[in-house]
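Hi P.,

Sorry for the delay on this. The queue was packed all week, but I finally got your sequence through. Input first:
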Amino acid sequence: MPEIKTYTLTLPEIAETLVKKLDLHEGLWGVYLEFGIGAGHVPGTPEGQTIAPAVIGVVQKIGIQRFDSPNNLTVDAATVNPQKHKAAKKQKTSGVPLK
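Then the structure:
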């Protein structure tokens, strides 16, 4: 069996993973990408005899942002990462009634 070298996720799957990683339990969340744009001259032919202006885009940050209404990019944190209810801790007392 060949070695797996790439795993891909959809944008909602990435949002779900980040909601769980950040331990969020409420709200609609979707993927947020921040881009940087640059420009320059690049070879216009394989031989490099001509140059051509080009735009270069880079991904600078990936995160999640809160949305006001659901869409094809969002996940509901309450559904994908529900709050786990912990049993109330019993308070230790010395046996003396509290006033």
